[in-house]
């Protein structure tokens, strides 16, 4: 996708940044990465290992985004972590929220998800969340690996979403 982005992007070392994007100081970006028009990335954010930010995405100070796609109009507030996830349009993550991508505490690390009452093995040990358009994740909310949120979902502040409880 990067070679076809055109003249409105600054492209260097596998990182494409639209000229209208605002990047504050202290940001680290490790490619590949694409940052579309009207994005705002605040101070000390860390984008790594394959990030796509669609139009008008806001990334708050000291947030980390790893191997994820975040679609238009979404906001990831300060001190958040989003790992190996797909975040829909107009989603809001309040401060301190996490889309976890790894089970540190389990012996069996492979991540499974529940979709339409069926358990599906992802075949990987790194898999975050699939968050539907218009969802809202409250401050310090945690989405366990493999979380799937339908459109318009609300996660309360301090809530843990663990859709598949395994030993």
Structure description:
The structure is a single chain. The chain is mainly beta and 167 residues long. The protein is 0% helix and 38% strand. The chain has strands at 9-12, 15-18, 22-23, 28-30, 33-35, 40-41, 46-48, 51-53, 58-59, 64-66, 69-70, 75-76, 81-83, 86-87, 92-93, 98-99, 112-115, 118-121, 129-131, 136-137, 142-143, 147-149, 154-155, 160-161. The strands form 4 sheets. An 8-stranded mixed β-sheet has the order 1-2-5-8-11-14-19-22, with no helix packed on it. Strand 1 and strand 2 form a beta hairpin. It is globular, with a radius of gyration of 16 Å.
Quick summary:
The chain has strands at 9-12, 15-18, 22-23, 28-30, 33-35, 40-41, 46-48, 51-53, 58-59, 64-66, 69-70, 75-76, 81-83, 86-87, 92-93, 98-99, 112-115, 118-121, 129-131, 136-137, 142-143, 147-149, 154-155, 160-161.
Core attributes:
mainly beta; 167 residues; 8-stranded mixed beta sheet; 7-stranded parallel beta sheet; 24 strands; globular
């Amino acid at each position: 996708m990067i070679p076809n982005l055109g003249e409105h992007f600054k492209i260097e070392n596998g990182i494409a940044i639209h000229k209208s994007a605002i990047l504050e100081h202290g940001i680290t970006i490790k490619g590949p990465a694409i940052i579309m028009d009207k994005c705002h990335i605040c101070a000390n954010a860390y984008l790594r290992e394959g990030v796509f930010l669609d139009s008008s995405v806001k990334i708050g100070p000291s947030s980390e985004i790893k191997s994820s796609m975040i679609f238009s109009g979404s906001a990831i507030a300060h001190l958040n972590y989003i790992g190996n996830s797909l975040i829909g349009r107009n989603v809001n993550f309040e401060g301190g929220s996490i889309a976890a991508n790894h089970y540190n505490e389990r012996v069996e690390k492979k991540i499974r998800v529940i979709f339409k009452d069926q358990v599906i093995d992802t075949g990987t040990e790194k898999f975050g969340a699939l968050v539907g358009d218009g969802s809202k994740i409250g401050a310090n909310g945690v989405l366990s690996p493999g979380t799937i949120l339908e459109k318009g979902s609300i996660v309360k502040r301090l809530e843990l979403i663990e859709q598949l409880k395994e030993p």
